[in-house]
Each structure stands twice: as C-alpha cells, then as structure tokens.
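Notes continue from the previous slide.

Worked example: a multi-chain complex. Inputs as given:
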Amino acid sequence: KNEVEQSPQNLTAQEGEFITINCSYSVGISALHWLQQHPGGGIVSLFMLSSGKKKHGRLIATINIQEKHSSLHITASHPRDSAVYICAVRLSADGLTFGKGTHLIIQP
Amino acid sequence: ETGVTQSPTHLIKTRGQQVTLRCSSQSGHNTVSWYQQALGQGPQFIFQYYREEENGRGNFPPRFSGLQFPNYSSELNVNALELDDSALYLCASSDGLAGDRPDTQYFGPGTRLTVL
C-alpha cells in the first residue's frame, strides 16, 4: 500500500469549474507539499503546509493533521491549469515520499 | 524558474554502461535530493546530500551513488545500467537543515535517461 494516496487519478473538467484533488497519508508528518508537473517533467512547488490553509491566486491548499488528509482546490479553472498535481510528504529525515499524481485536464 | 539546473536534458545509454547526471542547486542551498520518476509514476527518493555527505537513502542499490561539491552542485552516478533505469531523474535543492524542519524543495527540470 502506498503511504501517500491521491484521488482522483485522472480528472477532466470544463473551464471555469471548481477542482478538488485529495491526498491522504498513513503516518504522522511534519509537512505536506503540493507540486505541479507539466509535460516534459519540470516540477514546481505550489505549497508546503504544516497546518491549516494556504492560498495563492486561484489555488487553495488545506490540511487536516488529525485526519491525515489534504486537499488542493483550483477555483475558476483554466486550460493552462492542465498538469499533473502531486502530493508529497516527508515521513522521516529522508527525502519526500510522493503520491502517484492526479492528471488534470481542463477543457476550454 | 527555480534556479536549479540539470544536465544533460536527455541521454541515451545502453545496458551495462555508466552514466553521470549533474545538478546545480539554487545559490545558498546546502541540501540536494535526487529522485527517479518512471513513466506514469510519482518520483521515488534515491538519496539526499547535506553539506557534501549522504544524509539519507531510499530503496536503491549501491550502483546508484552520488557526490555533492562545495559549490553545492551535485552528481548522480549510475553504474551497470539496466533497462528499468530508464526514467526522469530529478534533483531538488533546499536550504533546510536536512530533515530537521520542513523546507521548500526547488526542483530542477530533470534529465530523461533512456537505457536501450
């Protein structure tokens, strides 16, 4: 069982829709990362969360430490938001453990 | 732009060969991590270097090795390449004390390695 589970695996929506991507993890963590990966591979760090909620433009990330769950929301989605969104956590002093990613397609 | 660069962008090798991938960290970052991302999968942690010493390792065999230099550039070396080593290799740098506190990771664009 993967220690970081994301859902859905694939999501296709229409431009303007409100998008939610979920991430669950199995053990206590110090921080959770939301990352965006475009075709070609480059990864951009969107958020790093230890508690509560963060907002950047149309992106909102929340985390519930007790429930070991985080969500990434996109408001007023746009085709340029199409990408793979990856949740990652630090389980130990080692590097990040990643989910498999959510492949998001926003259609015009 | 994260300030993290990797070279080469793409590389084709044959089974049994050796490869060196390079990463130049963002200025001032003393921690670098390397990840392997197979097609359709999330990245997998290979190892992490902090101030030129290996500071953590994932489930990868010893033929995966690394170096970090005083100027915070680093290398990933893979010996005796196997077909399954074909993947995108990502490095990420940060300025956190390794493992001591949450720190933002800055990822490079990756090197896509194909092993034939």
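Summary box: The mean pLDDT of chain A is 90. The two ends of chain A are 36 Å apart (CA to CA).
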